[in-house]
Specification:
The protein has about 400 residues and is an alpha+beta fold. It has a single domain, classed as Deoxyribonuclease I, Chain A. The protein is built from seven helices and 14 strands. Strands 5-6-4-3-14-13 form a six-stranded mixed sheet, covered by helices on one side. Strands 7, 8, 9, 10, 11 and 12 form a six-stranded mixed sheet that branches. Helix 6 runs parallel beside helix 7.
Amino acid sequence: MRKLLAVVCGMGMSLGAWAQNAEPMALRVATFNILDVRPSDVQDGTQPRLRQLAETIQRIRPNVILLNEIAFAAPDDYSRPETGAWTAEQFNMLYLAVPQREGLEPMSYRVYTSRPNTGMPSGFDLDRDGQAVSAFPLPEPAGDDGRPTPPSERGRAYGNDCWGFGTFPGQYGMALLVDERLIIDEDNVRTFRLFPWRAMPDAELPRDENGDLWYDEKVLSLFRLSSKSHWDVPVVLPNGSTVHFLCSHPTPPAFDGIEGRNKRRNHDEIRFWADYIAGADYIVDDAEQRGGLAEGAAFVILGDLNADPDEGDSHRDPIDRFLLGNKRINSSLTPVSDIPVDGLDADDTAAFGFRVDYVLPSADIRVLRGGVWRWADGSNPSDHYPVWVDIAVPAGE
């Protein structure tokens, strides 16, 4: 049975010792964009790319990991919330819980997931191409190499009119996996999938070349800030503390025009977390509870945030402005890889040459070490590399 990573000041301690002595608890936290995993990929445990994804996770051995781009859907079922966890549960059960190489131990996780905005039809012509597309083509199976097939023209037309781009409902969803000996406080999970973009003060709403709002008043009354969702998932540790895992996957700052509807949305999706940890009163969750995170609560912001602090096309550098320079966040460590790749910096977390994936704990959490995992032979199963950080969480009172 796998032991929790438990190292403080160089001393290893058992899980029981943490609970008994209420010492700071060390956790390995990771985020991994696993590249568009669909229901058809997890029908059984044999898909080679998914086996390598699972092997990667088994080698890193995180206690908590956020998976980006795993569908909230089941085979031929893209609308019912009660079946939306199927893909994540299958990946957990058929891949992570099965050793993928001799000498590797299985992983045992609890799974939290909920519906994203991706692939959810709006009923409006959001891209202003003259038609509002609300019917989606059935997703095609992966290619022979296990990688997803590119979107068809019909799929793109549908996705461009959804609340978040997706060629079918639930595509590009998220799942938070936690060690089975940690407890997800599901009664106090907060989601912000429906939060209106225009409700954010001074929102960077897109405008056309004439300076007029890109979306009309009817659309703006419904348009969601989150391209997928924003989650606050509290997890209770054996030492009595609670850590709020703040999970999201903002839209890429690309694939738009002069109006910058994706660039500006990415900016405000990232800004949301800075306002949330500051306790902003304007924020209202999907259960209509108002307010941000309680003062003094421990947290970790994690996910594919689709913005690099040094390069790329992000709008007004939201990573530096709102997160890396935030006094409430411990950004003292920049995870890097010890596997060099031509054309990439050591801190690049994606094969396209940017640092876009983050694990950022609150200032009261000590950072021990971290890294960016790359396969030495270059056979990475995703266009992103997992990022992991070891943290020490103070005991609860």
